[in-house]
Specification:
About 30% of the residues lie in helices and about 30% in strands. It is an alpha/beta fold. The two termini are about 45 Å apart.
Length: about 450
């Protein structure tokens, strides 16, 4: 005979109610496991009139037209009430103190915590300068104010579209980017570093991809990708609006995968990385010539598409957490070569996790070696590096770059030791985030 069922003596209605609540909660946990929800949004931010273009001081006149459209793209992620929003904007970056006003509008209107927002620029040098100074640049100030409204709109759209997804990561490699610190020998005993092409210096060519598929559908809903290069295939003589390398890659992917597909792109650690062909005067198309910005942007986009169609690593942990910190690093000394005892420079560091993935957002132009060091030391299985994120602190070179000199070192606010400080702080933040849910 089966044993008698175990009976718990319920001595009061209150105790009975308590048990029902507890067992009901357990039942819901088993029946409705937490999962990842995602939403995507996109808005056209192409200027509708001539504007000053960013990236080159020698370019003084307004834009003369549009080669390809600019966009702002948002990816919202949510798990168990914890949210993360990654925004990619086809613009140079958040110079002229534009980062915080744009961020504040999104945070307030979309009810986000500061660490939950990665506001990133792809760093195209063929987009409008962002500014709120209406006296110096009325058209650009009006464009920037409108952009603030559009960013709120695109983030709100992504949050409103949150729905269950399956997420996976995949990785490729692209030759589009190359170290740009070319060494020119001026004499047998004297050399200098110029902006050019230095393929003999190793760079990180990894294309990092996060794929999102709706739980009730078999095809991708969207993708975010990161790749380390400046979007500077076009130079100061170009007066046509363009997303350049990253922007054209985004456009290619959205055209290839079809209607409603959204593909936000991000610039990785690329302070010393340029496209293989750089600073061209225009979109050359004579006698069947394929314009290099289109060629290189499409090459990058095709690599993303290729890895999307190949093997992927399905994520099984969707824990969402984030942190933001303003880090004070060594600044330049009086001579610009050695740090002063009281010289410092700040930079915003934003990190987040989605299960086994970590996102690192740096508010500046960080040398490629710094990104490689953090990826190697990160406690997470996968670490995506995003720059021009939540700020515009400028170039942050490696210690070894200072004796060499060059444009990045000369224009940087940071001194030797800043790279080591950024690596150390970022890795400690990642470990804290990693360990917080393991205790």
């Amino acid at each position: 005979m089966p044993p008698d069922p175990i009976r718990f003596p319920l001595r009061s209605p209150a105790l009975l109610l308590c048990c029902l609540v507890v067992f009901g909660s357990i039942a819901r946990t088993v029946a409705e496991p937490s999962g990842l929800r995602a939403g995507l949004g996109k808005v056209d931010i192409t200027p509708d009139r001539p504007v000053r273009m960013g990236g080159y001081e020698s370019r003084k006149d307004p834009s003369l037209g549009v080669h390809d459209p600019l966009g702002a793209r948002a990816l919202a992620l949510e798990e168990n009430g914890q949210r993360l929003v990654l925004v990619s904007i086809d613009t140079l970056g958040f110079y002229n103190e534009t980062a915080e006003p744009l961020r504040r509008g999104i945070l307030d209107e979309c009810n986000l915590k500061p660490s939950e927002l990665f506001l990133c620029a792809i760093h195209t040098h063929s987009a409008p300068i962002l500014t709120f100074d209406i006296e110096k640049a009325r058209a650009n100030a009006e464009y920037t104010s409108k952009l603030g409204t559009q960013l709120i709109q695109v983030v709100r759209t992504a949050l409103e579209k949150l729905e269950p997804v399956q997420a996976s990561v995949c990785f490729g490699s692209s030759p589009v980017g190359v170290n740009r610190r070319e060494v020119v020998q001026q004499s047998p005993t004297n050399s200098k570093v110029v902006l050019g092409r230095n393929p003999w210096r190793m760079t990180d060519r990894e294309v990092q991809v996060l794929k999102l598929v709706r739980a009730d559908a078999g095809k991708p809903e969207g993708v975010m990708f990161a790749y380390p290069t400046h979007s500077t295939s076009l130079g100061p003589k170009n007066y046509l609006i363009s997303g350049d390398i990253h922007g054209i890659a985004e456009q290619f992917l959205e055209h290839y995968f079809g209607e409603n597909f959204v593909a936000p792109g991000f610039a990785g650690a690329s302070g010393n990385i340029d496209p293989w062909v750089r600073v061209l005067p225009d979109f050359r198309a004579t006698n069947g010539w394929v314009p290099e910005p289109v060629l290189l942007g499409t090459l990058l986009g095709e690599e993303v598409a290729r890895v999307l169609e190949g093997p992927q690593i399905l994520l099984t942990n969707y824990t969402v957490r984030s942190q933001l910190r303003t880090v004070t690093l060594p600044g330049k000394g009086i001579e610009g070569a050695e740090p002063s005892t009281n010289s410092t420079a700040p930079i915003n560091v934003t990190i987040a996790r989605v299960g086994e993935i970590a996102f690192v957002g740096w508010g500046g132009e960080i040398f490629n070696e710094v990104g490689q060091a953090v990826k190697k030391a990160s406690p997470f299985r996968y670490t995506f590096i995003l720059t021009h994120c939540n700020g515009a602190a400028g170039y942050l070179p490696t210690r070894e770059s200072y004796p060499e000199g060059g444009y990045e070192v000369e224009s940087s606010r940071f001194g030797p030791g800043a790279a080591e400080g950024l690596i150390d702080t970022t890795v400690r933040m990642l470990r804290d985030l990693h360990d917080s849910d393991s205790k």
